[in-house]
Amino acid sequence: MTKTPLRVAKYVFLALAALCSLFPLYFMVVSATNTSADVIGSRLTPGGALMDNISKLTTQQNVGAAMGQSTIYAVSSALLSLLVCSIAGYGFEIYHSKHKDRLMGLLLLTMMIPFAATMIPLFRMFANLNMVSTLPAVVLPTIATPFLILLFRQSARSFPTEIIEAARLDGLSELSIFFRMFLPTMRATYAAAAVITFMAAWNNFLWPKVILVDQTFRTMPMLVASLTSGYVTDYGVLMLAVLLASLPTMFLFLVLQRSFAEGITGAVK
Amino acid sequence: MNINRRSVLGLGLGAAAVATLAACNSGGKNDQAVAGDVPTSGTLTVWCWDPAFNIYSMNEAAKIYQKDHPDVKVKVVETPWDDIQTKLTTLAQSGKLDQLPDIFLCQNNAFQKNVINYGDAFSDLTKGGVKFDEFPPAVVGYSTVDGANYGVPFDNGTAVQALRIDYLEQAGLTMKDFTDISWADYIERGTQLKAKTGHALISGQSGSSDLIMMMLQSAGGSLFDADGKPTIAKNDILLKSIDVLKQLQKAGLYVEVNSWDEYIRGFISGNHASALNGVWILGSVQTAKDQSGKWEITNVPKLDGIDSATNYTANGGSSWAVSAGKQPALANDFLKSTFAGSTQLYDTILPKAGALANWMPAAKSDIYQEKQAFFNNTAIYAQVVDYSAKVPKNNTGAYYYEGRDAASVAMTKILKGADPTTALDEAQKTVEFAMK
Amino acid sequence: MTTTTAARAVPSPPTDEVGRRRGLTSARRKSLTGWTFLAPATLLIVLMSFWPMFEAFLLSFRTGRGTRMRWADPWWANYTRLFDDGIFHQTLANTFMYLIVQVPVMLVLALVLAVLLNDRTMKLRGLWRTAIFLPCAVSLVSYSMVFRTMFSTDGMVNDALLALHLTDHPVNWLGNAVTARMVIVLGLLWRWTGYNMVFYLAALQNIEPSTIEAAKIDGASDFRAFWHVTVPQLRPMILLTAIMSTNGTIQLFDESWALTAGGPANGSKTMSHYLYELSFQNNPNFGYASAVSYVILLLVAVLAAIQMKVGDKRD
Fold it and tell me: Which domains does chain A have, with CATH numbers?
């Protein structure tokens, strides 16, 4: 019973953290229902302008197309990324060697340089291949990220070697061990990585806007940027668009959060 | 390394294309291309931003052109200015200018920088038949490099001072008291208004140099001379401008805000009694629908003790550029017949989008005399067109943004108490370093 | 390709206990399989990152504006230029300030939250977890707007301070270099704490609960069990988040760009923000911009190497 004050303190702390986290989100949702002047005036209660904002946004901008494009980019980028990087991360750890450690170090270097510096050579490469404004050109540079490889390498460290050895004795191929043993065991890591990579791909801004020279294939972040580029910004419409642009990541998090927070590690053992 | 080496040939005609430029551009002499035969069919692709303004205007222009040229199509692609600049830079640096559209809109302040660096991207429009003398010289100046014209001016950045007449009335003042005045008069009358009503007059984003840049231009001053050399140190007009801002702040008439959102909120919430900016700010002013009839506009105050001082200046604005590698003759003909030749176009886009003409013949149209209910039934468009012809010219050059940023750093320091001469000397050194 | 090579690698002979991951008997074959697993990712990174990086490296020895480039004389001139560039010095100092103040606070906070939320006796865990993660999913546009509004001179933060009599003057948060940097640090904490918490939560799943219980049975307090049993097992993940946060902060762009526009008087501007200006706003100086980006790379690389040295030990 001495623990009660501590528990209360824990809940107070969590409640405070949640409140701070949710407030800007609340503002975003409420603002989507308010007029521009009300948003500018920081009105914190829901208003009646939602339908008006929706009709303004949809007549001005092709939201459906942008959501569709963004979904295609983000989903293909996230899926390929998870596959390619988890195999690599697994390879780095399970078949660990000095040379591989050095290679990992080298690969890490590539995330340490600002993208603005490498963007133009990268663009020229795709342009020479006649791939400007194509899906592969948007997705290819986002697939292999040293960060994700490192994440899987670090996670593989806690993967019990006994499982691998037992599987080898059972005659499983190395690749099957990866797919049938490692992948299900690491569900928590995969779920977390899926959220993170999807979010990164969804919010990616600089590269799509450069490589998609033909702006007809624009993504949601590009659409949102358009809304603030005019002389008069309609803040209600802007907040509605921003809310729509934030929904997919939130949704994915809601769906996957149980798997990475209440993992199933025990089930395998 | 595959960076294209290009040399500037002479000064005026832009750079010659060498090496891997894959464009269909015949290379070099861009000045003849626009004068060639005009094809009767084709599709013109246009990049510009702002659906309510530029995009709307461009689509209206297309309708007008298509009446005489039914086989010409215009495809407008919404592209924010930041994206146009990033794309133009990337395409030029990687030698892929063939990816540019036929026409793109370019901010006036960035126009010379881009022409000087990426001359291959632009068509020289000097010989294309557009009558550039039908535009105010200050506006044409932004897109002129070494005597050659590279842009057809569109968006009007002429500065206006919009005031709340109900506040003026409460303080026993009228619009006359704020028209054709100097900043000293302004401070005197503004103080009276503040004492009676409690409202400050204007605001500015902290660190933003918009206001001092407008003051500087109002007296024909620039951060650079005609040769592009920085003139920030010992620049009397700039010193005076910053001094005025300091006095405004001391008198509580100028309020520093944190962001653009807060700046807009300042006047639409009724907190600040005025807005002083490019005419395009009236779009935001009018979002406060409850204040209809309570606003009027006039010209801006002038600097005291400066011989060249005027009551006219500008902020922002943009011009159409024709890219070199595509269909320059058709694009040029299109702009010549619409934005530089159609009164009908401006008659349509003014009431619908509030898009004011820089093309002077359009301003003779009756529509400019129409009284606007929001602005207490005054003919604000005729007023602005009258001001725009009187705006002094200002040199931007290739280093405009470096200059502007250095000046705003100096301004921030001076407002916090630094010695003005020293701060401007430092700013001059910063820009000289950037140019090294 | 991967499939065939991997298939050839089976069946692997049993390994002796000491061998574990190192020194396996069929080491060669195993090593080959390992390399095959790395191949697709490595190939992509070489093409998409190393090649452009190499070009950028060469570019850092060239000078000129726009496309009028020539080899710098001396060839390292862009690097020595950095020593005379006041704006660069300012942005370097700002960036390090963000790094030193924000990263440790954020990681400790994220770890505490993760451990709290991993406690199965806590109620409403899904709710707390979601709430705390969501900030990083919120678009930058709305987040920066909310922060600017909250910290505006007539905003909620000032209202609260005035009401509590903590100040008698509204603070011009973004108009003052010190407070503007503070707002950026707060913004970073708000946006990325939940993000890092996710990694810790995932890593906590891989910890055998019995190890912690064993420690508690031995009489260890909650804190001691956490410090001596949980933290060591989380070390690989702590290292990862430390490297990532260091990298992210040294390359920080968003907050400087959207929250404060680098102001006032460059007082909150970051190196990446300056790099972007050099390339896309100012008269484009790509040679110099490349040199700045290589300095950023060097800084992150050195810091990451130190972190790896300290934290990356296989027990």
Answer: 62-228+241-268 (1.10.3720.10)
